[in-house]
Structure formats: structure tokens, C-alpha cells
């Protein structure tokens, strides 16, 4: 960071880089056991949930459309779902908005129950079924908006 002592850092910043790579997914090939991978991912999610800057980290990964790793305790699918929810709620995430990361961070802090629900949706069989329904609803709403724009 900039060296100011009052800046808040993430929980992960105190871990060695090799451990960070293992837990948040950039070095998964080194861990062959799926049960060990699950333990690392679960531990990473717990650390993210304890982190004071989880919302900012998550917002930045959503804005930048990060396509890899578990960031802010959520995988890529969950972050995409959250982005759609935020946009449907009226959060301006367009590249022309200079405050988009801050706006999304505020929105994420105001909707912790949605973050938990989206995490469940992206990781369970029931969640996958509900995600399919959500995607159908999202596409339907988008088509209706486009149709309304043409009229």
C-alpha cells in the first residue's frame, strides 16, 4: 500500500504468498487430493468472511470481471450472479462511472444475506437448479427491456 499506518489490509495479506496461491486457487495443481482442495477452499472462504475488506475485494473482482480464483470467498459463477443482482438493483457498473467500485462495495455491505445465498447457489445441486431459474428470469427481463426500448 502507500505506507500509511491507518490503512486496513486483508486477512490474506498476512499469509505467505505460497499459502495464498494454494488457498485462493492459483496453484491448485500442486494439491492432488480433492478433499485437501476442499479443505483449503473452505478455509479460504472462512478467512474471507472474517476479512474487514471482503466487500471491497469482492467488488473489485466483480468490476474487473476476474475470471479465475475464489475472491472475497466466492467463485466466478457466484460473482457473476452478484453482478447481475446489483445491476438489476440499479447499481451503475458501467465503465464510465468513476464510483462504480465504491457503489458496488456499499451495495454488497447492504446485502450480506444475498452474498450468502449466491454462494449457496453456486455450490449446491439445489443452488444450481435455482441459478438456472434465475438465469431464465434475468434473460426474460433483459428481453423485455430491449423490447420496451424498441417501442
Describe the structure in your own words.
- This protein is mainly α.
- The chain is built from seven helices and no strands.
- The protein is globular, with a radius of gyration of 17 Å.
- Residues 1-5 have low confidence and may be disordered.
Summarize this structure briefly.
By secondary structure, this protein is mainly α. It has helices at residues 17-23, 34-50, 54-63, 76-88, 100-110, 112-123, 125-150.
Order of helices and strands: HHHHHHH
Structural class: mainly alpha
Reported for the largest beta sheet, the result is: none
Number of helices: 7
- How many beta strands in the DSSP annotation? 0
Write down the Rg: 17 Å
Share of helix, binned: 55-70%
Q: Which stretches are poorly predicted, pLDDT < 50 over at least 5 residues?
A: 1-5
Shape: globular
Look at the structure and give the mean pLDDT: 83
Strand portion? under 5%
Task: For the record, give the distance between the C-alpha atoms at the N and C termini, rounded to a whole number.
Answer: 50 Å
